[in-house]
Amino acid sequence: MSIMEYNGGSVVAAKGKNCVVIASDLRLGQQAMTVACNFDKVFRVTEKTYIGLPGLASDVSTLRERFRYRVNMYKMKEEREIEPEIFANLVSSTLYERR
Q1: pTM reported for the whole predicted model
Q2: Which segments cross the bilayer (predicted)?
Q3: What is the CATH architecture of 3-96?
Q4: Per-residue pLDDT tens listing for the chain (99 residues)
C-alpha cells in the first residue's frame, strides 16, 4: 500500500442570498479501506475566503502549503488581505502552471 493511493472524498459548496455553505467528508482511504476519519479538506484562507481540496492526500497537503505561502507573500507585498476574486485567480494559475 502506497501513500500515493490515499484519496480523500468530496467537497461541495453552495451560495445563497447573503450566505454560503461548504461541506466535506472527513474520510481518507484507499478504495474500501478507511485510513483516517479526521482528514480536513476545507481550509480557511482569510476571513471571507475558504478553499476545499478533495483528492490525493499528498496533493492536498502540497497545495495547501503552496496557497498559504502565496497568500502570505501577497499580504506582505500588498499590505492587505487577499480578496476572494484575486485568490480565485491565484488558484487558477497555480493549478494550470504545469500544464
Answers
A1: 0.83
A2: none
A3: 4-Layer Sandwich (3.60)
A4: 666 677 768 899 999 999 999 999 988 888 778 888 888 999 999 999 999 999 888 899 999 999 999 999 999 999 999 999 999 999 999 999 877
Around Cβ 22, how many Cβ atoms within 10 Å?
13
Question: Which three cell numbers mark 71?
Answer: 497568500
For 92, the grid coordinates are 487558477
Domain boundaries, the chain: 3-96
**Angle CA 48–40–63, to nearest 5:** 70
d(CA 14, CA 3): 31
The answer to whether the CB of 35 falls within 8 A of the CB of 46 is: no
In whole angstroms, what is the distance from residue 83 CA to residue 36 CA? 33
The identity of residue 21, as a single letter, is: V
